[in-house]
Design goal:
319 residues, alpha/beta, ten-stranded mixed beta sheet, two-stranded antiparallel ribbon, 9 helices
Length: 319
Amino acid sequence: MEAIIFGSYFLGWTKSADLPLGVIVEEIEIPVPWGHVAGRWWGPRDKQPMIAIHGWQDNAGTWDNLIPQLPTNLAVLCIDLPGHGLSSSYPTGMIYYIFWDGIILLRRIVKHFGWSKITLMGHSLGGALSFMYAASFPDDVDKIICIDIASPAVRAPEHMVKHTAILIDKNLEYENLSEDKIPCYEYEEMIDIVCEAYKGSVSRENCKVLMKRGMAPTPAHMKKKGYYFKRDPRLKVAGLAMMSIETALEYAKKVTCKVLNIRAIPGQKWERLDYYLDVVEKMKQRAEVQYVEVEGTHHVQLNAPQNIVSIIEDFLELY
């Protein structure tokens, strides 16, 4: 069963043959000043859900293989971040600061629904946002689950300074990208491109899962055949305002909630794995932290959810 909701209101159910017996999911839209944030609400609507946040340039479909394996009485709201999936992109003239924007967005959603003591689950960028939100609003967070990440991407100051001009010019270039320059591909060709971009982190079949929300048929007025990527091209250059390790450790000291950190092996190829582990250790000063290593690619929640589902379930039941 699936349903569609606009403005957070339920509009009705539709059938989905792909879901296990007893699993329900609804498509929702949450109003924001620039449009809407799209999401998939799994499980019961009469309880506060865990909020699940995807990785950079992915979408809410990254959870489609994991959530159905969790208990059916668990409510989970999987969102598409701005410019991703089915969510509205930022207006022309705005720039994505992916780590900082996400904290503000989560705050909007929490206030929209009037939730408190929330639980967050995030993969990659989504895990970094969960960490940042827990550090920024420690009294409002009960638990966070971070998959193959510990904090926002850490960059040395000289790296940030070196790339500032390049990123600004690229942002302006993508902002003025005309429709005739938007690339369009046949379906299988697009899946080939996606698979190559993920470099083995996502199987071909699971690339198709992500592209259910990540691509769309080319509009008739563009007079092109095939499909195009729905994500905002400005996201490719959303690397401004990164974080130093000193800043990441300061935020880590502010986390007081229960933490589950799952690192996939081989997972992401971290430039400085020691930074990742330093953040985990710093959180232990004030928070209850479970750090677990599992076999899997960076997208373990999508590619091998069976490797982490019991770990997540046990963590949620323990607390």
